[in-house]
Write a structure and sequence with these properties.
heterodimer, A: alpha+beta, two-stranded antiparallel sheet, 29% helix, 28% strand, B: two-stranded parallel ribbon, 21 helices, globular
Chain lengths: 249, 373
């Protein structure tokens, strides 16, 4: 057995050790609270798959600690990494740059196969950010617009006529959202990103408008080793965001 | 009984068993864990490794700094304005916070200048020059260039953790009783320079930083493991299948060619998936134990290869390796740095005058200078 190691006791005064300990505890408490305050799931519920809310104590504490402490320090990740979901839909963007007459000036692919690994990776994140569609809940009743007001409209993905694997954004009154099939729309965040990215491309390439097309493909499940793949498993879905004005001219 | 023996066989800051330090009770063990001076070589080595990671991360965007980070880039001023009006959960995936890049406005030349100045800061920090200042600047740089919510990436969180704790460590290093001149107090010690023979006094700040990194990294690894358990693909052992056969590049014929050895293949994939889970969920059980080092560091290295070649994800792999190396004891760092001078290009790394390397026993006999900062 090795001889006992002489303890190198801290030469800090007791009050400083106490204060330091309090700071360490408070810091770690804030980090753990943030982690606990993350919604979990989706879990199976009687109403379908749903996310579980954070425990109440963690949620309340987190409302204080994160904005006032962790956010300025940029330690706001709750370590529920998106990359833990390995079966993610593949997304590639195509940006058609057009002049004022609608002629195609250039077509860009994102991620750019010729970009370096670091840039290509961030481009892939950009492309994936545009794949975050949301289900649209159809209205149960018929809505009537208020006097001098128009009926609320929503942009939904609709198949291009005669092409089942091609979608385009179509603005329809909320009460006319189809009820006989699942309907998806782009999220507000996606819309913001599309506009911002189109403005950037317009500035850099002096384009009048940018047509952004999203090519996506579902992840390939290991079940294809056992049986036939589900219909369309290896097919691309093409979703056209339409021409977005770049507001440069 | 055996459980408590196992628990007590973990190490204290200087590598001694916690059994010996926990005899004085929980408070003494706590004080020993956080507030015992330790050789700062580990801290300096982590700084160099993290610095290389920061540099490779930021330099990877050279020539694209305006589109990635500038207010005329992918996420422009107008987008920031619109995003600030959005309420969760419809808003950005991460909160929009400060960034030095915002100071450049829409001036692309200023963004480029800031970018290259930031690269210079990271280089100085990596080399250990004026670490008191460059550690803070490095944290500002990492925070600023991870601020764009459009390209927000999980791995950025690891960069921020490393940058933050290294900043804490280098701001405190030698401040309390390090015998530094006022210049040393302001800019940092010249002993932070990793190259060349330098005697380094033991430091409380070095131990505190490594402990904070260890605990935070453990929380991160375990939580990430628990989060994986919220996904059926990890339970079914299929999670690692998907990055092997990504959409767009995988052909049906390619997958079908595996049908002949399907069982063997799926067994291997599911075993690998469960090995990842076991490493992450069991992390706190082995991370502080010296005899489990091959599992700790080996697992992180395998993870690096996996994330690099299967997932094609940057940052995660090297950051996990650096996080795992934070658990090495001063003795282990001494052994490692003792090997480095044998690498031809690293001859100058010899730490001949370091008390540890002159006499391994000297450190244990508490003869080395101690700084509580």
């Amino acid at each position: 057995m090795p001889p006992p190691v002489p303890s190198k006791a801290s030469s800090l005064p007791g009050w400083l050790v106490g204060l330091g300990s309090l700071l360490i505890l408070a810091h770690l408490l804030a980090v753990i609270t943030l982690v606990l305050a993350a919604p979990s799931g989706p879990w199976s519920t009687p109403f379908g798959a749903d996310m579980a809310l954070a425990p109440w104590f963690a949620g309340k504490l987190n409302e204080i600690t994160t904005p006032s402490y962790l956010q300025p320090l940029k330690l706001t990740h709750n370590y529920h990494f998106l990359t833990n979901r390995t079966g993610m839909t593949g997304v590639i963007l195509e940006a058609r740059l057009r002049d004022e007459h609608g002629n195609v000036l250039n077509t860009l692919t994102i991620p750019d196969p010729n970009a370096n690994h670091w840039v290509k990776h961030r481009q892939a994140i950009l492309a994936r950010s545009l794949g975050d569609d949301q289900p649209v809940q159809p209205q149960m009743g018929e809505s009537v617009a208020a006097p001098n007001q128009q009926v609320k409209k929503v942009k939904i993905w609709e198949p291009v006529e005669g092409k089942q694997r091609e979608l385009q954004l179509k603005e329809v009154p909320e009460h006319l959202v189809p009820r006989d099939r699942p309907v998806m729309k782009t999220s507000d965040w996606t819309n913001l990103l599309v506009r911002s990215y189109a403005r950037h491309l317009g500035r850099v390439h002096n384009a009048d408008s940018v047509e952004i097309i999203r090519r996506s493909q579902e992840p390939i499940p290991p079940a294809v080793l056992v049986g036939d793949p589900p219909p369309g498993a290896f097919d691309e879905l093409i979703s056209n965001f339409g021409r977005i004005p770049t507001s440069n001219k | 009984m055996s459980k408590s023996r196992n628990a007590l066989s973990a190490e204290g800051p200087a590598g001694q068993p916690l059994a010996e330090v926990s005899e004085g009770g929980l408070w003494k063990a706590w004080v020993h864990f956080w507030f015992t001076p330790a050789d700062p070589t580990g801290l300096h080595a982590i700084r160099v490794l993290a610095g290389v990671l920061f540099l490779s991360w930021l330099l990877g965007f050279a020539g694209h700094e305006n589109e990635m980070f500038g207010l005329q880039g992918w996420f422009d001023t107008q987008a920031y304005k619109e995003a600030s009006r959005m309420q969760p959960p419809n808003g950005p995936p991460a909160p929009i916070t400060w960034s030095l890049v915002y100071l450049c406005g829409e001036n692309t030349a200023a963004v480029t200048a800031l970018y290259w100045a930031s690269v210079a800061v990271l280089l100085l920090f990596t080399l250990g020059i004026a670490t008191r200042i460059t550690s803070v600047l490095t944290w500002l740089v990492v925070g600023s260039f991870t601020a764009n919510p459009l390209i927000s990436y999980d791995g950025d969180a690891l960069l921020l953790i490393l940058a933050f704790y290294l900043m804490v460590g280098y701001v405190l290093l030698g401040q309390w009783n390090g015998g530094l001149s006022w210049l040393g107090r302001l800019f940092g010690s010249s002993r932070d320079w990793l190259l060349g023979p330098v005697a380094r006094p033991q430091s409380l700040a070095a131990n505190l930083t490594m402990r904070l990194l260890q605990v935070h990294f453990t929380i991160l690894v375990v939580v990430a493991g628990l989060h994986k358990l919220q996904s059926g693909d990890w339970w079914s052992g299929a999670a690692l299948w998907y990055p092997l056969y990504p959409p767009f590049t995988t052909k049906l014929s390619e997958v079908r060619s595996l049908a002949g050895r399907r069982d063997f293949y799926l067994i291997m994939v599911s075993l690998a998936t469960y090995a990842v889970l076991a490493w992450q969920l069991g992390f706190p059980l082995f991370a502080w134990r010296q005899r489990w080092r091959p599992i700790l560091v080996g697992g992180a290295l395998i993870g690096w290869l996996g994330t690099a070649f299967l997932y094609q994800l940057p940052i995660f792999g090297p950051a996990f390796v650096i996080g795992s190396l934070c658990f090495l004891t001063p003795d282990e760092w001494s052994w490692l740095t003792g090997w480095l001078p044998r690498v031809p290009a690293l001859e100058r790394l010899r730490l001949a005058e370091s008390p540890r390397t002159v006499d391994q026993g000297a450190r244990r006999s508490a003869q080395t200078p101690v700084t509580t900062g």
